[in-house]
Amino acid sequence: LEAGLHYTGENLRGSAAAFVNVVDDLITAMPEATGGNERMQNVAKAQFTGVELDGEWRLAPAWTAYGSVAFVEGRDKTGDEYLRFTPPLNGLLGVRYEQELGFWAALELDWAAHQGHTPKGTPDGESWASLNARLGYRFTVGPTQHEIVVSGENLANADYTNYLSTSRGVALSEPGINCTASWRVEF
Question: Can you tell me the distance from the alpha carbon of 138 to that of 103, in angstroms, rounded to the nearest whole number?
């Protein structure tokens, strides 16, 4: 079940949604008491409840501020316990500059709060934030659309772990400062 509201104005756009998802016979991984191994476990009835908000505000003809925030809580309804691997409160805040000539730039803060809604015997997730920037240029050649983008992520070189990034229970650190360049062609 999902319900939402959407608003689109000349300089402001926003949406809000709330949802409840009930799943019968959910299969999830749970840690074993010894050895650090995991075993698959059946949850007879699981429920996911959450909200999502996002918005965009045109500050000036070339400038736009935008953001989103989401929260999900997963519960094992038969054992009345939190489910594993549900994302914590998280979001994105950004500002974008775009010229009519095709050049654009964006600066974003991607973040997640502490995840303390975890089942017994599983670790909590720590909060984190990552500062990212992108520069791009869009152009047309004949019938094809092109976009060249240079991006930098985790510009503050934060040492953090995303709660959802694990490999069979082993927490994996996210990359430090990293840069990419790409060329996308649509035809």
Answer: 7
